[in-house]
# Entry
Amino acid sequence: MTCGTSRATLFCLLFAAAGCTSTHQSQLRRFEFSQAQMGLDFRVTLYAPDEATAQTAATAAYTRIAELNAILSDYDPDSELSRLSQSSGSGEWRPVSPDLWRVLAAGQELARQSAGAFDLTVGPSVNLWRRARRQQALPTPDLLAEMRLRVGHTNLLLDAAGRRAQLVRTHMRLDAGAIAKGYALDEALAVLQRQGIDRAMIHAGGDMIFGDPPPGRDGWTVELPQPGATHQNVLSLANRALATSGDLSQFVEIDGVRYSHIVDPRTGVGLTNRALANVIAPRGITADSMATALCVLGPQGLAPLLAAYPKVQCQITVGIGDGARIVTSPGFDRLVVQP
Ligand code: AMP
Ligand code: MG
# Structure
């Protein structure tokens, strides 16, 4: 039995400015920052006129990410998300902050659109699989059934007018692990933009957000993770988010079966379909959550989700080796600069 530990490495090929097109652009220098946030390495790359401007902007972005972690973490028992979980079954409506509201509302919308494949209430089942990884042993059928009773997006009620939420059953546990980093990327980029930094990209644990491209270029050049492929697709992206979900680095393997850290909320079992989803969307919150949903749904879930989210492009791979099947959305190929 083995247990994966390191996150998948997304290669981002960032080229230095070449052939700058204006005096203003030629005055920009490239700066890179790295800081641990949300249990991930958040890497900021930006173009600024000088180091002080770059440093101030990056610090403000990291401050915003830390603020969001304090709201959205399911590891921190004092986060707003955890406190809402602790109120489950009390019959009480709890007021929620604007940030938590945006995440809950987007998550519930995707839960509906994905027929429950994406589920913010999946926490009890996720915890079982975290324990399975630590103990290198499958959860018992009894525990799987017990935890599944605590899961279900219809047990999370939202009241938009009052900006409040209620968890209907007892012992429910919200988990924003599949959506929070995407939202944090959106918000961190917005902070940079408010500081006058438009040419920036941020990378966090396999998810990325891109603002305007580096000076003199049309986009940020990114190599997509495609394990086992003989060549990698290279994309050029600007003002878009890219998220990758799958079992590349977080899984437990027992008796030759790999169980992903992504759980099918409808069965309570870690995915065994070997799915990998790359999603490109206008916003990180959409890309992050949809990549997770598409791993659960597989290629057959693609068409209904694209109908609901028409600005999304994606590529899903299921299976490995000769049996692998790759499905892409209709506009995906237009993003590929080097097939
Ligand atoms: P990601 O790496 O974005 O695919 O997110 C995976 C994380 O989201 C897991 O580690 C869990 O914390 C949580 N999660 C697992 N399965 C689901 C699911 N079906 N819906 C929503 N969140 C999930
Ligand atoms: Mg995700």
